[in-house]
Amino acid sequence: MTKTMKAVRVSQFGGPEVLRLEDAPRPEPGANQALIRVRAAGVNPVDAYIRAGAYARKPALPYTPGLDAAGVVEAAGSGSRWRAGQRVYAAGTIGGAYAELAVCADEQLHLLPEKATFSQGAALGVPYGTAYRALFQRGRAKAGETVLVHGASGGVGTAALQLCGWKGLRAAGTAGTPRGLELARAQGAEAAFDHKSAGYEKELLDWTGGRGFDLIVEMLANVNLARDLSLLAPRGRVVVVGSRGSLELDPRGIMGKDGDVLGMSLFNARPEELAEAHAALGEGLAGGALRPVIAAELPLAEAARAHEDVMKPGAHGKIVLLP
What we know:
Elements: E1 4-10, E2 19-25, E3 33-43, H1 45-52, E4 68-76, E5 87-91, E6 101-105, E7 109-111, H2 118-122, H3 125-138, E8 146-149, H4 155-166, E9 170-175, H5 178-186, E10 191-194, H6 200-207, E11 213-218, H7 221-230, E12 232-240, H8 252-255, E13 260-263, H9 271-287, E14 294-299, H10 303-310, E15 318-322
Helix pairs in contact: 3-4, 3-9
């Protein structure tokens, strides 16, 4: 057994060029942990924010990036409920996912159904966990309600559309390219609207019959939040998933609707909330209602390119790295 593995390492915060594929010590699982052979690692925008040193939580340097992975259990530590050979996906790791091997706490691992590929498994943790938490834990979505998903062609957006279809919610989505609009419709949006089109807000409101949306999942609040308030139904909710700056907001837009603007971060989820989310995701994945869209599969050595691509507008699914 070799004592080293290949892993992407970051020795200083900065641009994508700080991502280096290097030899690293082979990790070993401790008590209530398992070692997985990584078959695919998910690339998320939060990985890029952390790498740049722009995120509130900064790991100690050097570190291996990556929160999401899928693979096969290679070894289990004492007391672990996992066993060698099981197909799993990881929603979080101990030590990073951009590597040939990764150690995970027992509760970070979940069974990966046979019908799902490893790349699809690596697309679950952050995107689907975020979408589930936004819709049902923070947004309190109920069957029959009308939902607007901004950025509907990205990893979180496609996950949210699939969840809406599965749980009986009517969903519309926005995207910025013809391909993105087509993808949104293919993933369950009853209607898709070009957010670059002048006056698209009126088209959205008209689609609801003038009533507005019960719930809006907002990926870019600094651009959209002020106009979202005009699209809310009475007692509607906006869940802010992402923002890249500040904005000026008139609170009367919230007051007039008895509306709610709710922030969320997956990192704030309590253990019982994460358990609820992944129980539901496993059910949806096994039953075929949830089917992660993979935009690109890149070798581990191209982690820098993956970080560049994940921050570009016009996402069309999920980027994964293959060790």
